[in-house]
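FIELD: query
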Amino acid sequence: MTSRERVLKSLEFSLDGKVPRQIWVLPWAENHYPEDVKQIRKDFPDDIEGAPLLYSNEPRITGDPYLPGSYSDEWGCEFVNIHEGVIGEVKNPIIRTLEDAEKLSLPENLLSLRQEEVNNYCRSRDTFILQGTCARPFERIQFLRGTENIYLDIGEKSDLLKVLLNKVHQFYLKEMEVWADTDVDGLFFIDDWGSQQSLLISPETWRELFKPLYREYTELAHSRGKKVFMHSDGFILDIIPDLIEIGVDALNSQVFCMGIDPLGKYRGEICFWGEIDRQNMLPLGSPETVFQAVQELYDKLYSRGGIIAQCEFGPGAKPENIRTVFQAWNSVVSA
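FIELD: result
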């Protein structure tokens, strides 16, 4: 079967044979292990890829997000970076007070996607193609206001916060609709919601302010025949039932931060889009412990699919452990 078919079958719990795979390679890995990255990609090609970003009006971007120094993104948010190969942080938010929310300039250039060229690319590939950009309402308001400010705003639940959040959300809906009108297979949104031990805000506040936004994204995607992929780092166990309820098809999360056993109750209800522990196991573990981790994922989360063999090759990760991830998945699931 093609890569696209393999991914769809895993999402729909009807897969026989090897699980689909995807590696996320950060520039750090490209800089430190270029030959290893090249060989791993050759030996274990991705079944999932992002669509190319092709615009009639190029977005306003300055600098490089992965180099030390300053970088400004499409929204005008400035990131300051001190480590090569990873992304920096916003130090000078552009919305100083919530009263300035109405003045926010939206990145309309992102709506000028050259859809037919994207379609041509999709037709030329047998991989599963995801939307090339991603909605991120919680992270975006952090970038615009600053992290400390936005937590105070959320605590106060002011009407002006809702104005800002709605403005960002409505733009993302427009952007996702542009992508939904192409031949991509899935739409993608992200927000990192967890610390190491809990959600960053209460589940009740999350359900009040953010769950309705994600529901609209999934409803839009499914109405156009697209699958829905979400990424969220940290301990997010409390909201996984909500993500299943609103229709998220695949979730990329820190499985080993939450523990595999508590996630087992959702086996067959949502596709686990990775991952192998990048905080400890990939940088500090051995190939043997990596293999055992993959075996445990298969034993406790696999359900005629329901798994995408994904991991991140980022700071500190050992090339031999990354390679073992994909070798192990080939081993534990019969071809």
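FIELD: remark
The mean pLDDT is 95.
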